[in-house]
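Homework help board

Subject: predicted structure for assignment chain

Our instructor gave us this sequence and asked us to write out the predicted structure in C-alpha coordinate form, then describe one feature. I got the C-alpha coordinates but I'm not sure how to describe them. Can anyone check?
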Amino acid sequence: MTGLTFGFSLVPTLDIGAHRELALAAEDHGLELLGIQDHPYVPAYLDTFVVAAALLSATERIHVFPDVANLPLRPPAMLAKTAAALDIVSGGRFELAVGAGGYWDAIGRLGVERRSPAEANAALEEAFAIMRAVWGTGGAIHRHGTHYTVDGLEPGPVPAHPIELWTGAQGPKALALTGRIADGWAAPIPSYLPYEKWTPAHTILDEAATAAGRRPEDVRRIAQVVGTITDTLGELQVEHGSAPARGTAEQWADWLTRLAESFTSFVFWPEEQSLDQVVRFARDVVPLVRAAV
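My C-alpha coordinate output:
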Protein backbone atom coordinates (compact mmCIF):
# COMPACT_ATOMS: atom_id res chain seq x y z
CA MET A 1 0.00 0.00 0.00
CA THR A 2 1.26 3.44 -0.92
CA GLY A 3 -0.07 6.94 -0.63
CA LEU A 4 -2.99 8.08 1.50
CA THR A 5 -4.96 5.13 2.91
CA PHE A 6 -8.12 4.83 5.00
CA GLY A 7 -9.82 2.13 7.02
CA PHE A 8 -11.77 1.28 10.15
CA SER A 9 -11.26 -0.77 13.29
CA LEU A 10 -13.59 -3.57 14.29
CA VAL A 11 -14.40 -5.10 17.68
CA PRO A 12 -14.39 -8.92 17.22
CA THR A 13 -17.73 -9.73 18.88
CA LEU A 14 -19.45 -13.05 18.26
CA ASP A 15 -21.55 -11.60 15.40
CA ILE A 16 -19.39 -12.73 12.49
CA GLY A 17 -22.21 -12.03 10.05
CA ALA A 18 -22.21 -8.35 11.00
CA HIS A 19 -18.43 -8.25 10.64
CA ARG A 20 -18.63 -9.63 7.10
CA GLU A 21 -21.26 -7.02 6.25
CA LEU A 22 -19.01 -4.24 7.56
CA ALA A 23 -15.95 -5.58 5.74
CA LEU A 24 -17.78 -5.86 2.42
CA ALA A 25 -19.29 -2.38 2.76
CA ALA A 26 -15.89 -0.91 3.62
CA GLU A 27 -14.32 -2.56 0.58
CA ASP A 28 -17.19 -1.58 -1.73
CA HIS A 29 -16.82 2.04 -0.65
CA GLY A 30 -13.07 2.10 -1.25
CA LEU A 31 -11.50 1.67 2.19
CA GLU A 32 -8.08 -0.02 2.10
CA LEU A 33 -7.58 -1.08 5.73
CA LEU A 34 -9.53 -3.14 8.25
CA GLY A 35 -8.16 -3.39 11.78
CA ILE A 36 -9.38 -6.01 14.25
CA GLN A 37 -8.83 -5.36 17.94
CA ASP A 38 -7.00 -8.11 19.82
CA HIS A 39 -8.11 -8.83 23.39
CA PRO A 40 -7.92 -12.62 23.86
CA TYR A 41 -8.84 -12.36 27.55
CA VAL A 42 -12.36 -11.07 26.78
CA PRO A 43 -14.77 -14.06 26.79
CA ALA A 44 -17.26 -12.40 24.43
CA TYR A 45 -14.67 -11.77 21.70
CA LEU A 46 -13.70 -14.13 18.90
CA ASP A 47 -10.03 -14.80 18.24
CA THR A 48 -8.70 -11.93 16.16
CA PHE A 49 -6.79 -14.11 13.71
CA VAL A 50 -9.78 -16.36 13.07
CA VAL A 51 -11.89 -13.28 12.34
CA ALA A 52 -9.12 -11.97 10.07
CA ALA A 53 -9.17 -15.23 8.09
CA ALA A 54 -12.95 -15.08 7.73
CA LEU A 55 -12.95 -11.48 6.54
CA LEU A 56 -10.03 -11.97 4.16
CA SER A 57 -11.91 -14.87 2.58
CA ALA A 58 -15.03 -12.72 2.20
CA THR A 59 -13.23 -9.80 0.54
CA GLU A 60 -10.95 -9.23 -2.43
CA ARG A 61 -9.02 -5.98 -2.00
CA ILE A 62 -9.02 -4.65 1.55
CA HIS A 63 -5.95 -5.24 3.75
CA VAL A 64 -6.56 -6.67 7.23
CA PHE A 65 -4.41 -6.29 10.35
CA PRO A 66 -4.68 -6.98 14.11
CA ASP A 67 -5.11 -3.67 15.90
CA VAL A 68 -2.80 -4.52 17.70
CA ALA A 69 -1.67 -8.12 18.23
CA ASN A 70 -0.94 -8.93 21.85
CA LEU A 71 2.69 -10.09 21.70
CA PRO A 72 2.93 -11.55 25.24
CA LEU A 73 0.13 -13.97 24.33
CA ARG A 74 1.44 -14.85 20.86
CA PRO A 75 5.02 -16.24 20.53
CA PRO A 76 6.77 -14.47 17.65
CA ALA A 77 7.73 -17.49 15.55
CA MET A 78 4.14 -18.76 15.52
CA LEU A 79 2.84 -15.22 15.04
CA ALA A 80 5.05 -14.92 11.95
CA LYS A 81 3.86 -18.25 10.56
CA THR A 82 0.21 -17.35 11.11
CA ALA A 83 0.71 -13.97 9.46
CA ALA A 84 2.47 -15.53 6.47
CA ALA A 85 -0.32 -18.07 6.03
CA LEU A 86 -3.00 -15.37 6.11
CA ASP A 87 -1.00 -13.30 3.63
CA ILE A 88 -0.59 -16.23 1.24
CA VAL A 89 -4.22 -17.35 1.25
CA SER A 90 -5.42 -13.75 0.78
CA GLY A 91 -3.07 -12.91 -2.05
CA GLY A 92 -0.94 -10.47 -0.04
CA ARG A 93 -3.52 -8.58 2.02
CA PHE A 94 -2.36 -9.07 5.60
CA GLU A 95 -0.31 -6.61 7.66
CA LEU A 96 0.84 -6.99 11.26
CA ALA A 97 0.57 -4.43 14.04
CA VAL A 98 2.04 -5.64 17.33
CA GLY A 99 1.72 -4.36 20.88
CA ALA A 100 4.33 -5.03 23.55
CA GLY A 101 1.65 -5.59 26.18
CA GLY A 102 -1.09 -3.84 28.08
CA TYR A 103 -3.83 -4.83 30.52
CA TRP A 104 -1.28 -6.93 32.37
CA ASP A 105 -3.73 -8.14 35.00
CA ALA A 106 -5.90 -9.61 32.24
CA ILE A 107 -2.91 -11.01 30.37
CA GLY A 108 -1.71 -12.63 33.58
CA ARG A 109 -4.98 -14.54 33.91
CA LEU A 110 -3.97 -16.39 30.76
CA GLY A 111 -0.79 -17.62 32.41
CA VAL A 112 1.74 -15.06 31.15
CA GLU A 113 4.14 -13.30 33.50
CA ARG A 114 4.00 -9.53 33.75
CA ARG A 115 6.79 -7.57 32.03
CA SER A 116 8.12 -4.17 32.96
CA PRO A 117 8.02 -1.52 30.22
CA ALA A 118 11.73 -2.05 29.57
CA GLU A 119 11.27 -5.82 29.37
CA ALA A 120 8.26 -5.42 27.08
CA ASN A 121 10.23 -3.22 24.67
CA ALA A 122 13.18 -5.61 24.68
CA ALA A 123 10.85 -8.52 23.96
CA LEU A 124 9.26 -6.60 21.08
CA GLU A 125 12.65 -5.94 19.50
CA GLU A 126 13.59 -9.61 19.80
CA ALA A 127 10.23 -10.60 18.33
CA PHE A 128 10.58 -8.37 15.27
CA ALA A 129 13.98 -9.90 14.49
CA ILE A 130 12.59 -13.42 14.81
CA MET A 131 9.52 -12.71 12.68
CA ARG A 132 11.57 -11.18 9.89
CA ALA A 133 13.92 -14.16 10.00
CA VAL A 134 10.97 -16.57 9.74
CA TRP A 135 9.78 -14.68 6.65
CA GLY A 136 13.27 -14.78 5.11
CA THR A 137 15.03 -17.24 2.87
CA GLY A 138 18.24 -17.80 4.83
CA GLY A 139 19.35 -20.86 6.70
CA ALA A 140 18.24 -22.18 10.07
CA ILE A 141 17.42 -19.48 12.60
CA HIS A 142 19.52 -19.32 15.76
CA ARG A 143 18.51 -16.45 18.05
CA HIS A 144 19.04 -16.57 21.78
CA GLY A 145 17.38 -13.61 23.45
CA THR A 146 16.40 -12.74 26.98
CA HIS A 147 12.73 -13.30 26.23
CA TYR A 148 12.62 -15.47 23.11
CA THR A 149 14.89 -18.22 21.84
CA VAL A 150 14.65 -19.86 18.44
CA ASP A 151 17.33 -22.46 17.82
CA GLY A 152 17.40 -24.35 14.53
CA LEU A 153 14.03 -23.33 13.10
CA GLU A 154 14.00 -23.31 9.30
CA PRO A 155 12.40 -20.14 7.87
CA GLY A 156 9.18 -20.15 5.87
CA PRO A 157 6.74 -19.89 4.44
CA VAL A 158 7.57 -16.61 2.71
CA PRO A 159 4.59 -14.23 2.70
CA ALA A 160 2.92 -13.31 -0.58
CA HIS A 161 4.06 -9.70 -0.15
CA PRO A 162 6.44 -7.94 2.27
CA ILE A 163 4.31 -7.81 5.42
CA GLU A 164 4.72 -4.50 7.22
CA LEU A 165 5.41 -4.62 10.95
CA TRP A 166 3.76 -1.78 12.86
CA THR A 167 3.73 -1.02 16.58
CA GLY A 168 1.18 0.59 18.86
CA ALA A 169 3.88 2.41 20.83
CA GLN A 170 2.96 4.98 23.49
CA GLY A 171 5.99 5.81 25.65
CA PRO A 172 9.15 7.62 24.50
CA LYS A 173 11.34 4.50 24.57
CA ALA A 174 8.77 2.44 22.66
CA LEU A 175 8.42 5.23 20.11
CA ALA A 176 12.20 5.40 19.68
CA LEU A 177 12.26 1.64 19.15
CA THR A 178 9.54 2.03 16.53
CA GLY A 179 11.56 4.68 14.72
CA ARG A 180 14.57 2.37 14.68
CA ILE A 181 13.06 -0.92 13.57
CA ALA A 182 9.36 -0.76 12.63
CA ASP A 183 7.67 -0.23 9.28
CA GLY A 184 4.91 1.82 10.83
CA TRP A 185 3.30 3.34 13.90
CA ALA A 186 -0.38 2.69 14.59
CA ALA A 187 -0.89 5.61 16.96
CA PRO A 188 -2.86 4.53 20.04
CA ILE A 189 -6.35 5.99 20.32
CA PRO A 190 -6.49 9.28 22.28
CA SER A 191 -7.67 7.65 25.51
CA TYR A 192 -4.20 6.07 25.63
CA LEU A 193 -2.20 8.79 23.88
CA PRO A 194 -3.94 12.20 24.16
CA TYR A 195 -4.00 14.48 21.12
CA GLU A 196 -1.36 16.86 22.47
CA LYS A 197 1.16 14.00 22.59
CA TRP A 198 0.87 13.14 18.89
CA THR A 199 3.27 15.86 17.66
CA PRO A 200 6.00 15.05 20.23
CA ALA A 201 5.60 11.38 19.27
CA HIS A 202 6.33 12.20 15.62
CA THR A 203 9.46 14.04 16.71
CA ILE A 204 10.72 11.01 18.61
CA LEU A 205 9.98 8.74 15.64
CA ASP A 206 11.76 11.08 13.22
CA GLU A 207 14.85 11.48 15.38
CA ALA A 208 15.15 7.74 16.08
CA ALA A 209 14.71 6.84 12.43
CA THR A 210 17.35 9.36 11.36
CA ALA A 211 19.79 8.16 14.02
CA ALA A 212 19.34 4.61 12.72
CA GLY A 213 20.16 5.70 9.18
CA ARG A 214 16.57 5.54 8.00
CA ARG A 215 14.34 8.14 6.37
CA PRO A 216 11.59 9.27 8.76
CA GLU A 217 9.03 8.95 5.98
CA ASP A 218 9.81 5.22 5.76
CA VAL A 219 7.90 4.78 9.03
CA ARG A 220 4.21 4.71 8.10
CA ARG A 221 2.10 6.92 10.39
CA ILE A 222 -1.41 5.61 11.10
CA ALA A 223 -3.82 7.89 12.98
CA GLN A 224 -6.53 6.01 14.86
CA VAL A 225 -9.43 8.41 15.20
CA VAL A 226 -12.36 7.79 17.53
CA GLY A 227 -15.77 9.37 17.32
CA THR A 228 -19.10 9.76 15.54
CA ILE A 229 -20.00 11.35 12.22
CA THR A 230 -23.12 13.43 12.84
CA ASP A 231 -25.73 15.30 10.82
CA THR A 232 -25.34 18.51 12.81
CA LEU A 233 -22.31 20.66 13.57
CA GLY A 234 -20.32 19.63 16.61
CA GLU A 235 -17.29 20.88 18.49
CA LEU A 236 -14.28 18.72 17.74
CA GLN A 237 -11.99 18.97 20.77
CA VAL A 238 -9.03 17.41 19.00
CA GLU A 239 -6.10 19.56 20.08
CA HIS A 240 -5.90 18.42 23.70
CA GLY A 241 -7.29 15.60 25.79
CA SER A 242 -8.94 12.42 24.58
CA ALA A 243 -12.57 13.27 23.84
CA PRO A 244 -14.08 11.44 20.85
CA ALA A 245 -14.56 13.60 17.76
CA ARG A 246 -18.21 14.32 17.05
CA GLY A 247 -19.12 16.40 14.04
CA THR A 248 -20.25 16.48 10.43
CA ALA A 249 -18.43 14.82 7.55
CA GLU A 250 -17.07 18.22 6.57
CA GLN A 251 -15.70 18.81 10.07
CA TRP A 252 -14.10 15.38 10.09
CA ALA A 253 -12.58 15.98 6.66
CA ASP A 254 -11.11 19.31 7.74
CA TRP A 255 -9.53 17.68 10.79
CA LEU A 256 -8.08 14.71 8.90
CA THR A 257 -6.75 17.01 6.18
CA ARG A 258 -4.77 18.86 8.84
CA LEU A 259 -3.53 15.56 10.28
CA ALA A 260 -2.39 14.47 6.82
CA GLU A 261 0.61 16.75 7.27
CA SER A 262 1.94 14.07 9.66
CA PHE A 263 -0.08 10.91 8.97
CA THR A 264 -0.51 8.95 5.75
CA SER A 265 -3.11 6.45 6.99
CA PHE A 266 -6.32 6.89 8.97
CA VAL A 267 -8.26 4.19 10.82
CA PHE A 268 -11.74 5.17 12.03
CA TRP A 269 -12.93 3.78 15.37
CA PRO A 270 -16.69 4.48 15.45
CA GLU A 271 -18.04 4.98 18.96
CA GLU A 272 -20.88 2.70 17.96
CA GLN A 273 -19.86 -0.04 15.58
CA SER A 274 -22.42 0.23 12.80
CA LEU A 275 -22.76 -0.04 9.05
CA ASP A 276 -24.01 3.54 8.90
CA GLN A 277 -20.90 4.99 10.52
CA VAL A 278 -18.45 2.97 8.42
CA VAL A 279 -20.26 3.91 5.21
CA ARG A 280 -20.43 7.58 6.22
CA PHE A 281 -16.69 7.62 6.84
CA ALA A 282 -15.90 5.96 3.51
CA ARG A 283 -18.50 7.77 1.40
CA ASP A 284 -18.70 11.22 2.98
CA VAL A 285 -15.39 11.91 4.74
CA VAL A 286 -12.67 10.13 2.78
CA PRO A 287 -13.35 11.69 -0.65
CA LEU A 288 -13.18 15.18 0.89
CA VAL A 289 -9.82 14.42 2.48
CA ARG A 290 -8.41 12.92 -0.72
CA ALA A 291 -9.51 15.96 -2.69
CA ALA A 292 -8.02 18.38 -0.17
CA VAL A 293 -4.71 16.56 0.19
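Reply (TA_rk): Your C-alpha coordinates look well-formed. For the description, you could write something like this. The domain at 5-222 is CATH 3.20.20.30 (TIM Barrel). That's the kind of observation they're looking for.
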